[in-house]
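Bug #2210: token dump truncated for Aspartate racemase?
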Amino acid sequence: MKKKTLGIIGGVGPLATMFIGEIIVRRTAAEKDQDHVNMVITNNTNIPDRTAFILGESRENPVPVIVSDAKRLQEAGVEILAIPCNTAHSFLNEIQQGIELPVIDMIQETAMRAKEKGARRVGILGTTGTISTGIYQAACERFDMEAVVPHEDVQAVVMSMIYDDIKAGKPADPEKWAIIRQAMEDAQCDEVILGCTELSIVSQELQLQDCIDSLLVLAETAIQRCGYKVK
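Reproduced locally. Full output below:
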């Protein structure tokens, strides 16, 4: 298989962008520099907030900026794209229609990973924007799994971890995670998807072992789609 150059549309958020680059390097089976995935990464922090637009809190549509970044990456020679933002995948069809390069479907791949693990009842943790669009719920349904979303009070804690902790450059609060984890256990979820790339940072900081990390799934899928092997 011909090796492909990967383009990462980043800045959504900035730390998750840096983290996926690190994951790809660490998870690629390589013995020397030349064995690694060739990547071009943007970190455009001017992309409007996806959740704010979905919830009607902002009129700034992130799609045109994402499409513009995708075209810049194509001009730079990339052949396949990854967007390390679950909420942005709410606009995936619209984004894909505006560009020529294929975009890895992070939501589909993550739901598939849950199915491969034998999940039947899957907890979905993500931004309120992601939850409200139902993209993970629909993906789980396609794989004959039941999606479970947090109650409103627990969702507020999830959003606080994403925005007040990680996006604000602060450490992940273990007490907040304890509340979220207990809610997922009470809901009898057999798997939990970290459906926000900021929650992937939480997973790293708190060393979570029993969740399906959407950013890790995206990174591993990107490695394989570019013609490389995962460690």
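Output looks complete on our side. The chain has a mean pLDDT of 98. Marking as cannot-reproduce; reopen if the truncation happens again.
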